[in-house]
Design brief:
This protein is mainly alpha-helical. It is built from 23 helices and five strands.
């Protein structure tokens, strides 16, 4: 009876999102009754959401060892931790293969295997996996959308892809969430086929479904107020306080501004380790630093030193011999004041591109619901202006440590601009930096296939294909475009 009460209490805490507290109770339960496989599973879930990833793996394994129902799902959960948090891709793939051995028609395992193959640049393998999945689950909509995007550039299949996507979008039994993915894929196929008016209509439809699938709405007043508060919390550069000799390089800017390409250029240098979209800073802001930025008013140097040491420890746990690490989270531009307090010597690479191309690219991408500004063109414009306002402030504080790396300039003249990048970081020049399309490291962003190709120019000036649809946006940012033209 006591165990049942504890299980009920833990479940209540879990449902409230109080994962650390729930985990402590589940740990007590499984010590008292180790045969309860479902409690081991729930413990693993809570540990994972508490950031205790190795402990979560152990708990999930205990659930499997004790005969948990649907063990293929537990292997899938282990694979997600191994791939996303611990960067152990080979181990993640083995977990997914084990899930398929248990259940040969387990669609989520095939989908995740195909996603990992895409992240690693293994296009043919990803295609085969999607086709195997769709052979027994033809209405598994996430796979339908991903498969269409994978083959969007192949003209011989574009008509069939469009027809299949349009049939799915016409159905009444497909959720708005799935329809958003399908419509974004349709837009991509049409765009690559040069059918620009139809493509824009598809992307409009996709963003409409995104809005319908989410309760999160972009609040312009809230965003402007946040930027005001950040600027107020960091009115001037603080005196440098040494928190250790090591500093990462932060690559940031608007989403879809070339940050993935920039990191892949640097990853060609033997001294550089690409972290990708490292979660440490957003997790810190939402956790130990909440409410941010108000918490900075009373933040001690000892705490900042502790955060910096924790950051470094997490990096070295993943990459033991790291020298220079690049942290490529575009939205870290929101936190540069904090980052320069933690790492006073940190260099900032700020990625930029033509504003119209940037805004269009965001609108054409199926971003997370938390980025609610992305589903409305005028909201993207507002968010873009607030980003520019905040970056202007950071330049007044840390200008000598910020390099603007322009995507369009790089496309026009690759080597001189790549050399500016390596010179800024004090690195000797390596020709391998321009061989970014040959990298075998995982790329877990929407740019996964762009950076697997030799340099191309089709994304620079892409907005001209949609000049009519973007006319209102051009008027809204006319001053920014005039400013860009002067530079």
């Amino acid at each position: 009876m006591e165990i049942n009460r504890s299980i009920a209490e833990a479940a209540h805490l879990r449902e409230q999102g109080r994962f650390s507290e729930a985990a402590r109770i589940y740990e007590q339960v499984v010590r008292a009754a180790p045969s309860l496989s479902a409690c081991w599973y729930n413990l693993g879930f809570c540990l994972r959401h508490s950031g205790r990833f190795e402990d979560a793996l152990s708990a999930y394994q205990s659930a499997i060892d004790r005969g948990v129902s649907e063990p293929e799902e537990v292997h899938l959960n282990r694979a997600v931790i191994l791939a996303d948090q611990l960067r152990r891709t080979g181990d993640a793939e083995r977990e997914l293969h084990r899930a398929i051995e248990i259940n040969p028609r387990y669609a989520p395992a095939f989908l995740n295997l195909a996603n990992l193959a895409e992240d690693a640049g293994r296009r043919d393998e990803a295609r085969v996996l999607y086709e195997r999945l769709l052979s027994f689950e033809p209405e598994y909509w996430p796979a339908v959308a991903r498969y269409a995007s994978l083959r969007a550039a192949e003209p011989e299949v574009s008509e069939a892809l469009c027809e299949g996507l349009e049939r799915a979008l016409a159905r009444f039994d497909v959720s708005p969430f799935d329809k958003a993915s399908l419509a974004f894929a349709l837009g991509e196929v049409l765009d690559r086929a040069g059918r620009f008016d139809a493509a824009f209509a598809a992307y409009d439809m996709a963003n409409g479904f995104s809005r319908a699938a989410s309760t999160v709405r972009y609040d312009r007043g809230v965003q402007a107020g946040f930027v005001d508060r950040v600027i107020g919390a960091f009115p001037q550069a603080s005196p440098k306080v040494d928190h250790g000799s090591w500093s990462p390089v932060f690559v940031c800017g608007m989403f879809r501004s070339g940050s993935t390409l920039t990191e892949q250029i640097l990853a060609g240098h033997p001294r550089v380790t690409a972290l990708g979209e490292f979660e440490f800073v957003p997790s810190l802001v939402q956790g130990g630093l909440a409410p941010f930025p108000e918490s900075m008013a009373t933040m001690s140097e000892a705490s900042l030193s502790e955060f910096a040491s924790s950051y470094e420890a997490k990096v070295r746990a993943l990459y033991r011999n790291v020298d220079i690490a690049t942290d490529k989270r575009p939205d870290n531009f929101l936190y540069l004041g904090l980052l320069k307090r933690m790492f006073p010597d940190a260099k900032i690479v700020h990625t930029t591109r033509n504003p119209l191309d940037n805004i269009l690219s965001i609108y054409f991408l199926n971003l997370d619901a938390g980025m609610s500004y992305a589903a409305v063109l005028t909201d993207i414009v507002h968010h873009y202006r607030e980003y520019r306002r905040l970056m202007a402030h950071w330049r007044t504080l840390f200008g000598e440590d910020i390099l603007d790396f322009d995507y369009d300039a790089f496309v026009a003249e690759p080597e001189p601009n790549a050399r500016r990048l390596t010179d800024f970081l004090g690195l000797d020049w390596r020709e391998e930096c321009l061989a970014f399309h040959k990298r075998t490291n995982l790329v877990k962003t929407a740019s996964v296939w762009q950076v697997r190709e030799p340099l191309y120019v089709r994304s620079s000036g892409r907005w001209k294909n949609y000049e009519r649809q973007l006319a209102p946006v051009r008027e809204m940012i006319a001053d920014l475009l005039t400013e860009e033209a002067r530079l």
